[in-house]
Amino acid sequence: MRHTLRETWSGLKRNGSMTLAVIVTMWVSLTLFGFGLLVTMQVDRAKDDWYGKIEIGVFMCVKASGGDNCDPGADATQAQKDAIEATLKENPEVAEVYYESKAQAYEEFKKVYANNPILESMTEDMMQDSYRVKLKNPEEYQGVVSAVSGLKGVQAVRDLHTVLDRVFAWLNMARWAAVGTSALLLLAAALQIGNTIRMAAFSRRREIGIMRLVGASNWYIMLPFLLESLVTAIIGSALACASLAAVQQFLIHDQAQVQLATVNWIGWPDVLIAMGGLALLGIVLSIIPTLIATRRFLRV
Question: In terms of CB atoms within 10 Å, which end of the chain has fewer, N or C?
Answer without folding.
Answer: N
